[in-house]
From TrEMBL:
Gene Ontology molecular function: dihydrolipoyllysine-residue acetyltransferase activity
Protein name: Acetyltransferase component of pyruvate dehydrogenase complex
Residues of the Lipoyl-binding domain: 2-77, 131-206
Keyword Cell cycle: no
Annotated catalysed reactions: N(6)-[(R)-dihydrolipoyl]-L-lysyl-[protein] + acetyl-CoA = N(6)-[(R)-S(8)-acetyldihydrolipoyl]-L-lysyl-[protein] + CoA
Length: 547
């Protein structure tokens, strides 16, 4: 059966998109995960991938054309499949056609109302005038579902166009989602901490007092349709606000906290009165609890005291309790698992390790950092040397596409950065053209954004090679999984002081091990070895990187 693909919302403020380039043409075979097109949003040009297998039967928006979000982008189905019904029937409906359809339904509705005043059941599922349905947006090119980290507006609150409604956790970052409408927040469809698919019902905004209980939300989440009595629906949100969104401070005043934040604080034994909220009006949110340090856990203290008492009474019998703590996987964690699993089990990895004499690099770095307002790290030197080595060994800067190999003529360096929930890879564009100080400044800026969850999807796209450094943790040597579609990733260990042979004598030296993971489909052993030799030469003779 043919699948209709619509213009996605690839940024939180995107209202329309322009097809910059089609990477698949009509009649081409498409597999799930293939990049269909490059779409220009209001923030960046992003790759849009297919979630379906089949043949590209129809292109609805040509290269260079602009169309609103949800306009027909393409149709994928079985080769030779008849899609005339989809094209004629409105799968490619523009917003104008949708408006005409709504007007027709309103006319029919008015006719029915004039014919029988008492049949209100026929109106069930219709959207009242002025009411806007907001679905879970697609905030990144690979996002399939999102988690509501926190709501900044509550049911009953007034909302202005441009107000931040919620913080939504995608597979890449936590992003603010703003409202495109004015009115009252009539319904929240996805609670804090809950995860839902893209296009599930997120919220309903409309005129104050509007009854939204009969709105048909079958196109998104179906949470609006419940069989519970109306009285319970009205009372439960109020109870939630009083019991789970507020707590009592040390001075007797109210402390506002999200339900998720309160639950996390309760589990960790944290007194909300000790936590400073970063949300709207000082509201405590999930991040504040995660970042809070210094609180004792009374419950655990009691367990420890009980364990000591038991041990004293029965000194030869170990006492304890078997238990597990189950944590819901974040969107980032799920995506890391999916992407790395795909890479490990599809790309035939092999590994090459080389040892580098870092004596000259250490001396050069010391001299460079003696200059005012300059700070260069060994990692910056590795990135610069890798970028220059890639220029001499373009085979390592390639991608495997199945039928062809793509050789990138540009060098975009991915730099692995550890964050609380996993690993992100910001990208330094055209790194071979940057100086050491420019690399250092850009890496610091991107790493800071990543750790503060302020990094944008556009900051993490387009890498052609990746560097992962665990040297700061004392790791001497390790291997990494290739960050596809790259053909290789470099693992950087710590600098070790050890005896080395220099000019026929044993002296104290400083060495560092580099391990290159290669995709054997694109990079042969000799090619990878030659790349490492060039990289070693640059690092052992840093002056050559300044030329």
């Amino acid at each position: 059966m043919a699948e209709v693909i619509k213009m996605p919302r690839l940024s939180d403020t995107m209202e329309e998109g322009t097809v910059a380039k089609w990477l698949k043409q009509k009649g081409d075979k498409v597999e799930e995960g293939d990049i269909l097109a490059e779409i220009e949003t209001d923030k960046a040009t992003m790759e849009f991938e297919s979630f379906y297998d089949g043949t590209l039967l129809h292109i609805g928006i040509e290269e260079g054309d602009t169309a609103p979000v949800d306009a027909l982008l393409a149709i994928i189905g079985e080769e030779g499949e008849d899609i005339s019904g989809l094209l004629d029937g409105g799968a490619d409906e523009t917003s104008d056609k949708k408006e005409d359809k709504e007007e027709e339904s309103k006319k029919e509705e008015s006719k029915e109302d004039s014919g029988s005043d008492g049949e209100s059941d026929e109106d069930e599922g219709e959207i009242p005038e002025g009411v806007e349905i907001i679905n879970m947006p697609r905030l990144s090119d690979t996002m399939e579902e999102g988690t509501v980290a926190s709501w900044l507006k509550q049911e009953g609150d007034k909302v202005e166009e441009g107000d931040i409604l919620a913080e939504i956790e995608t597979d890449k970052a936590t992003m603010e989602f703003e409202s495109f409408y004015e009115g009252t927040l009539l319904k929240i469809g996805i609670q804090e901490g809950e995860t839902a698919k893209v296009d599930s019902l997120l919220a309903i905004i409309g005129p104050e007092g509007t009854d939204v209980s009969k709105i048909d939300t079958s196109g998104g989440a179906k949470k609006a349709k419940k069989s519970a009595p109306k009285e319970e629906k009205k009372e439960k949100p109020e109870e939630a606000k009083d019991t789970s969104s507020k707590a009592e401070g040390k001075d007797g005043g109210r402390i506002f906290a999200s339900p998720l934040a309160k639950k996390m604080a309760e589990d960790k034994g944290i007194n909300l009165a000790d936590v400073k909220g970063s949300g709207e009006n000082g509201r405590i949110v999930k991040k504040d609890i995660e970042d809070f340090k210094g609180a004792e856990k009374p419950a655990e203290a009691k367990k420890d005291a009980a364990a000591e008492t038991t041990a004293a009474a029965q000194p030869y019998v170990p006492a304890g309790e078997e238990s597990f703590e189950e944590r819901k996987n974040s969107q980032m964690r799920k995506t890391i698992a999916k992407r790395l699993g795909e890479s490990k089990f599809t790309a035939p990895h092999y590994y090459l390790t080389i040892e580098v004499d870092m004596a000259n690099a250490m001396a050069s770095r010391k001299h460079i950092n003696e200059m005012p307002d300059v700070k260069v790290s060994f990692n910056d030197m590795v990135i610069k040397a890798s970028a220059m080595a890639l220029r001499k060994h373009p085979q390592v800067n390639s991608q495997w596409t199945g039928d062809t190999m793509k050789f990138a003529k540009h060098i975009h360096m991915g730099v692995a950065v550890a964050v609380d929930e996993g690993l992100v890879v910001p990208v330094l564009k055209f790194a071979d053209q940057m100086s050491l100080t420019q690399i250092g400044s850009n890496v610091k800026d991107l790493a800071g954004k990543a750790r503060n969850k302020k990094i944008q999807p556009s900051d993490m796209e387009g890498s052609t090679f990746t560097v992962s450094n665990l040297g700061m943790f004392g790791i001497v040597e390790f291997t990494s999984i290739i960050n596809q579609p790259n053909s290789a990733i470099l693992s950087v260990g710590t600098i070790v002081e050890k005896p080395v042979v220099r000019n026929g004598e044993i002296v104290v030296g400083n060495t560092m091990k580099l391990t290159l993971a290669c995709d054997h489909r694109t990079v042969d052993g000799a090619t990878g070895a030659a790349f490492l030799q060039t990289l070693k030469t640059y690092l052992e003779n840093p002056v050559t990187m300044l030329a």
